């Protein structure tokens, strides 16, 4: 089967199309004939910095959609031909992928395989950040960094659906603002001025919930615009190699809270909880009208082009590879 691997860290040019043996599912696993692959920022970090790479060569890919090919021992509830979306810790950039059955999900009726490739990571991440970590309540104000990206596009819609009184977004380039404004955001601000813009929009109060995948200085500036009892949910460090630190001076005066979320961590440590969150998140598509943010697609062999587009910071929504 065709698959995409890299044998050294570096730019998109290190990605190679290779021929690998078709994987077979072991106990508790499901193999999938892949139709679409979701491209995630974690893939770019793996290729460029070795994020979560335990050895080389490394086979990329965290999420796919397709049809069940084979089920391993002890797996119930799936049969060959079922249309599914799957989340895995690598191995998705391929014609056949293997995933733990615990993180394989039936694609909701009417969604289809193409949109289904956005389900395993984007929707559960956005839902968990707002409802489990951020504890969204009616009337809360919400700020989302990366508002035009995959998670950001969904988070704006979910915040509005969840009763937020105002939803503010931050984008790396203002030409992305139009995309974000179509996804539930009231106002969209530039990275350079978002903190002063948020305070102006809220009359100096700040926001109740903030979601940050950037880290570094952006994390600190986001924390500074939380209102009293505000909650900041960190889910990445894409803009900085330095870990963030906080102390009493930043949290005590206004009783601010900071928490983190990793869907990879949850998939490994508590897949049943992830399944519960995913099922709630998927219902927002079938029952609530949330639109999945597919904005560009590439052939599997053109994965390097998809990576270049992500790294250019000009992309919006979700990028897919077509198998």
Structure at a glance:
The protein is 30% helix and 28% strand. The chain has 323 residues and is an alpha/beta fold. A hairpin with an 8-residue loop joins strand 1 (2-6) and strand 2.
Keywords:
323 residues, alpha/beta, seven-stranded mixed β-sheet, six-stranded parallel β-sheet, Quinone Oxidoreductase, Chain A, domain 1, 30% helix, Zinc-binding dehydrogenase, globular, NADP, 11 helices, Quin_OxRdtase/zeta-crystal_CS, ER
Describe the secondary structure blueprint for this structure.
Layout: E1 2-6, E2 15-19, E3 29-39, H1 41-49, E4 58-59, E5 63-71, E6 83-87, E7 96-100, E8 104-106, H2 112-116, H3 122-133, E9 141-145, H4 150-161, E10 166-171, H5 177-181, E11 187-190, H6 194-201, E12 207-212, H7 216-224, E13 226-234, H8 248-251, E14 257-260, H9 263-269, H10 271-286, E15 294-299, H11 303-311, E16 318-322
Parallel strand pairs: 9-10, 9-12, 10-11, 12-13, 13-14, 15-16
Antiparallel strand pairs: 1-2, 1-4, 3-5, 3-7, 3-16, 5-6, 6-8
Helix pairs in contact: 3-4, 3-10, 9-10
Keywords: NADP, Oxidoreductase
InterPro entries: ADH-like_N, ER, GroES-like_sf, NAD(P)-bd_dom_sf, Quin_OxRdtase/zeta-crystal_CS
Organism: Actinacidiphila polyblastidii
């Amino acid at each position: 089967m065709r698959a995409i691997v890299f044998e050294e860290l570096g730019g998109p040019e290190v990605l190679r199309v290779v021929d690998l043996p078709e994987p077979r599912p072991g106990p508790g696993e499901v193999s999938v004939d892949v139709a679409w692959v979701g491209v995630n920022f974690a893939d770019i970090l793996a290729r460029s910095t070795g994020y979560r790479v335990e050895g080389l060569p490394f086979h990329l890919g965290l999420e796919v959609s397709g049809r069940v090919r084979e089920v391993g021992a002890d797996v119930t509830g799936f049969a060959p031909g079922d249309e599914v979306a799957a989340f895995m810790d690598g191995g998705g950039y391929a014609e056949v992928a293997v995933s733990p059955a615990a993180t394989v999900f039936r694609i909701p009726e009417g969604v289809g395989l193409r949109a289904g490739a956005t389900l395993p990571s984007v929707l559960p991440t956005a839902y968990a950040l707002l409802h489990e970590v951020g504890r969204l309540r009616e009337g809360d104000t919400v700020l989302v960094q990366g508002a035009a990206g995959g998670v950001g596009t969904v988070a704006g819609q979910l915040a509005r659906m969840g009763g937020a009184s105002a939803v503010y977004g931050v984008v790396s380039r203002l030409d992305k603002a139009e995309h974000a404004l179509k996804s539930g955001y009231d106002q969209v601000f530039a990275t350079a001025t978002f903190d002063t813009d948020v305070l102006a929009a809220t009359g100096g109060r700040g926001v109740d919930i903030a979601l940050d995948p950037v880290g570094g200085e952006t994390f600190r500036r986001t924390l500074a615009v939380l209102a009293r009892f505000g909650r900041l949910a960190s889910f990445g460090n894409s803009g900085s190699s330095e870990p963030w630190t906080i102390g009493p001076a930043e949290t005590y005066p206004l009783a601010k809270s900071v928490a983190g979320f990793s869907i990879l961590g949850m998939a490994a440590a508590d897949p049943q909880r992830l399944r519960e969150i995913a099922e709630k998140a998927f219902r927002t598509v079938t029952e609530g009208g949330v639109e999945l943010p597919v904005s560009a697609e590439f052939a599997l062999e053109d994965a390097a082009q998809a990576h270049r587009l992500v790294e250019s910071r000009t992309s919006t929504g979700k990028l897919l590879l077509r198998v």
